[in-house]
Design a protein that fits this description.
The complex is a heterodimer. By secondary structure, chain A is mainly alpha-helical. Chain A contains 19 helices and six strands. Chain A has two domains: about 5-250 and about 390-525, no CATH class; about 310-380, no CATH class. Chain B is mostly helical. The chains are: A mainly alpha, B mainly alpha.
Chain lengths: ~525, ~375
């Protein structure tokens, strides 16, 4: 029997560990590319200041990277430890991108990061630059594969249920990889990382400029990062719109929740800027609307009907009824794989298998055959995620995105005009922008994952069925352990990061002819151990 | 159908390669961590020890991550059943492993001795505990684990945390730790100049090797008397199936069935012994690189022996033997295995090539001078 508390605790633990992991990932994704850009400038111009710039940011990068790696270890195993049924049910598909991520991305990223950090005096300029690019490529490849995996959960493609093995199996790797959802999400997410890195670099550079420290490094870093940032933030918003468009087709329930659309309305429907959704009564207590805007915004047309929550629930109820015989047939097939009657029944209803599972939670003895009409209604209400959360979290993300767009437009203008260092108001503001992209990234994931509920794999597998059958005690123990460890980690990381930023770059040189002996010795000291060869 | 059988066996072999790669590469870094406070008595010595593996530990650790991913992709039911069943053990493994990257990266960032002491202990624990868990995990597979499935393949683990720490499993854990002390010790010998640290590293490697020989021998005798598992009847190996369709019995000495059927397989444990004995001689003679490679050979022999004994079992169920997980029923679909084979064939040679290049670039000895004159070293 499945225990509700265990499921909720498993969800809480996964959310906590995944959101925590993603505090470190965006900076890694973006800063690697920004480092590659900085080092490219160094290799092309030959100016040592750019080498100092690269090495300084690379020092901060590594502090962040360590925690990204550490918390990523949890994620690689957490599907198995806490989502056992999920892992068995879709592992044939979902495991592949995770394994390919290891083969293609993690090895590349992690092997070359050692050379990037410690290979400055052992590699030629061009070799080291190539290594930096490989790190950037590796970390972005890893984002690609994990989002291919997530894309499957959002909109399962290239897979079919096999009643012989009682699980989903891969039918087309191409459909899995080139799923529109996966690819759009990948670009949206990795560019969000670039924005994060750009804000981080501009924010820290502004902190130096405000105090008149490390001006040569700060000004150059600021300019490179703000150019990088303005392009990236435009990309994030464009791709975000595309994601809403693509994802909206795959998951009408998420879209309806994002827009708090309880009733299906005639196109072109009004857009809720702000509202107070009341889930129990299936209505909005109040709302501020712009007429006609929703339909063109979501569908890029004027006359496509966007299904509201009422329609989605009615649809779910119908599919639950149709899915129950599929589950029943499966139970027979499990003990008797050769039963042709059961197989025929399964094939007739298999498209709604996942909806059949959805009612298990409410049926007596968790047996779908016992499901009553009331149970089906309750289960169909579950087919909608928490509207209040999704509506507001999504808007918080969008607001952060627009704020960052404004920030980068101003920062590029100031930087190109060459007087950013004199705009003290802006320099004071910039460091306070650093949390914004992190908030936006987290809100984005909450929208994606909470918005997919009640499913772990949309339309196929309810989250409620996916968890491992642990005891409540085990779950409290593990959750407490993660919270304790991760809190300590965060404190240590922030302390080291702030300390390194306060300290600033080591003995930087402002004169670009600084090629004297002292400089060379210092560069030697900046790099690690070299053998006597 | 026969093609499916081929891929099933191929992925059993690749799983072995992966577990060996993990043991050799991660085990080496774990060994350095576990020995840190023994081989390094001063701060400088400890920094020298850490900097021998500084550019490589992260790349090596991917063997562990890939281990998770590849088991997920190729043996999803093992990934699902083993990692959830052994929950507390997995937490022990993860919680110690996630401290390790921070230990490397943060330890030398502050000069405070208290700070460094804390991280040194963190590195010792995060070196020793995962290797013990790793060995104990394999030991428990030979013992069988109490779990069963519902009709829809929901898995239920019915044992306690303590039952996973049975004497045989703990012995396997210590064997694993001793081999990693060997690999770490020989790595330190190879990358440092002769001196106090080098001598301690050699002593640790020697002790590791001797303990490994003793425990491998005891383990071998023990396994031959254990209640092994034997398939009575099941669908053909090349057919898609679930663990609900077979009948399995427990039998004393069944873990030697494969050796009796194919005596040539005795070469696998012999390889382990050869690695250990020749390796000890190499350590004695101070040939650290040779000793490292012979240690790798020992690992291959030890893991190979466990794999051959178990085959085709991966995770036998002690509470309901007929629901045991085998290579035939825990594996992915043919389609997935074929695709995964393709990706492996393309990327594994590239990984081996650039990993070798990275070791080549960073070759040479790490000395106290370099570590002390360099504020950015670990």
């Amino acid at each position: 029997m499945i225990n509700d508390t265990v499921v909720e605790l498993s969800r809480l633990q996964f959310a906590a560990t995944a959101l925590y992991h993603f505090l470190f990932v965006p900076l890694t994704l973006g800063l690697t590319f920004l480092l590659a850009v900085m080092e490219t400038v160094y290799v092309i111009t030959g100016k040592k200041i750019y080498r100092e710039i690269t090495q300084f940011w690379s020092g901060l990068f590594l502090i962040n990277f360590a925690l990204g790696v550490a918390t990523g270890l949890t994620m690689e195993f957490e599907f198995g430890t806490n989502w056992s049924f999920y892992s068995g049910f879709v592992g044939d598909i979902f495991g592949a991108p995770l394994a390919i991520e290891g083969l293609m991305a993690f090895f590349m990223e992690s092997t070359f990061i050692g050379l990037m950090a410690f290979g400055w005096d052992r590699l030629s300029k061009a070799q080291h630059l190539a290594v930096t690019y490989l790190v950037a490529l590796g970390s972005n490849f890893s984002a690609l594969w994990i989002l291919v995996a997530n894309g499957f959960m959002q909109n399962p493609q290239g897979a079919a249920f096999n009643p012989v093995t009682m699980r989903m199996e891969l039918t087309s790797l191409g459909s899995l990889i080139f799923s529109e959802d996966a690819q759009t999400k990948f670009v949206h997410t990795s560019i969000a990382g670039y924005v994060t890195a750009a804000i981080f670099v501009t924010g820290v550079s502004a902190y130096y400029m405000l105090r008149g420290r490390h001006m040569e490094i700060a000004k150059r870093s600021f300019r490179m990062a703000s150019l990088f940032g303005v392009l990236s933030v435009a990309g994030v918003i464009t791709l975000g719109d595309a994601l809403g468009f693509v994802g909206g087709h795959a998951q009408p329930s998420k879209l309806a929740a994002m827009e708090a659309m309880w009733q299906t309305e005639k196109a072109p429907a009004p857009f809720n800027i702000a509202t107070w959704p009341v889930q129990g009564e299936q209505r909005n207590a109040w709302s501020i609307q712009i007429p006609y805007v929703l339909t063109p915004l979501l569908t890029h047309t004027l006359d496509t009907t966007v299904p509201g929550i009422d329609q989605i629930e009615a649809d779910a109820a119908r599919r639950i009824k149709n899915g129950i015989p599929a589950v029943e047939a499966l139970k027979v097939l499990s003990g008797d794989p050769a039963n042709t009657t059961a197989l025929a029944q399964f094939n007739a209803h298999k498209d709604d298998l996942g909806y059949g599972f959805l009612v298990k939670r409410y049926a007596k003895e968790q047996n779908v055959s016992n499901a009553t009409g009331d149970d089906i209604v309750r289960a169909s209400k579950d087919a909608i995620p928490n509207v209040f959360t999704i509506f507001w979290v999504f808007r918080a993300m969008v607001a952060c995105g627009l704020l960052m767009l404004a920030y980068f437009v101003i920062s590029v203008i100031l930087s190109l005009r060459g007087d950013v260092a004199r705009q003290r108001w802006f320099l004071k503001l910039a460091p306070w922008m650093i949390p914004i992209p992190f908030i936006a990234c987290e809100m984005g994931w909450v929208t994606a994952e909470v918005g997919r509920q009640p499913w772990s794999v949309f339309g196929l597998l309810p989250t409620w069925m996916s968890a491992s059958s642990h005891s409540v005690g085990y779950m409290i123990f593990s959750l407490a352990g993660f919270v304790l460890l991760y809190t300590i980690f965060a404190a240590v990381e922030i302390y080291l990061m702030v300390r390194s930023i306060r300290k600033g770059p080591e003995n930087h040189h402002t004169d670009e002819q600084g090629t004297g002996a002292a400089t060379d010795r210092e560069y030697a000291a900046l790099t690690l151990t070299k053998g006597e060869h | 159908m026969e093609l499916y059988l081929f891929f099933k066996v191929l992925w059993w072999l690749l799983l072995g390669v992966l577990l060996m790669g993990l043991a050799i590469m991660v085990g080496m870094d774990m060994g350095v961590g576990a020995l840190l406070r023994y081989v390094g008595r001063t701060d400088t010595e400890r920094r020298v020890a850490l900097n021998t593996i500084a550019p490589h530990w992260d790349g090596n650790q991917v063997w562990f991550i890939l281990g998770g991913g590849a088991i997920f992709a190729a043996f999803p039911l093992i990934y699902a059943t083993a990692f959830s069943g052994l929950y507390i053990v997995m937490l022990l493994l993860l919680w110690t492993m996630i401290v390790r990257p921070l230990g490397f990266e943060y330890r030398s960032k502050l000069p405070s001795p208290a700070w460094r002491n804390v991280w040194d202990w963190a590195l010792v624990v995060s070196g020793a505990v995962p290797m013990i868990v790793y060995g104990a995990g394999v030991g428990n597979m030979l013992m069988g684990v109490p779990f069963h499935f519902a009709w829809d393949l929901t898995s239920y683990y019915t044992g306690s945390f303590l039952s996973l720490l049975n004497p045989f499993a703990v012995m396997c854990g210590v064997l694993s730790l001793s081999l990693s002390a060997w690999m770490g010790g020989t790595m330190l010998m190879g990358r440092t100049e002769r001196g106090a640290l080098w001598n301690r590293a050699r002593r640790a490697a020697t002790v590791g090797g001797i303990v490994a020989i003793v425990l491998f021998t005891i383990g071998g005798v023990w396994v031959s008397h254990l209640q092994g598992y034997r398939i009575e009847h099941a669908p053909l190996p090349g057919v898609a199936q679930t663990p609900l369709q077979q009948s399995v019995v427990q039998a004393g000495g069944a873990w030697l069935d494969n050796f009796h059927a194919h005596p040539v397989l005795w070469l696998v444990p012999a390889l382990g012994y050869a690695g250990m004995i020749l390796g000890l001689l190499a350590i004695r003679a101070g040939y650290s690189v040779l000793a490292w490679w012979l240690g790798a050979l020992a690992w291959i022999g030890v893991i190979g022996t466990a794999g051959v004994s178990l085959f085709p079992f991966l995770m036998p169920s002690s509470s309901d033997p007929s629901q045991s997980l085998t290579v035939w029923n825990a594996v992915s679909s043919r389609n997935t295995l074929m695709w995964m084979t393709g990706w492996t064939v393309v990327f594994m040679p590239a990984i081996l090539a650039y990993t070798s290049w990275a070791f080549y670039v960073m070759r040479g000895k790490v000395t106290a001078d370099h570590v002390e004159s360099n504020p950015h070293a670990y």
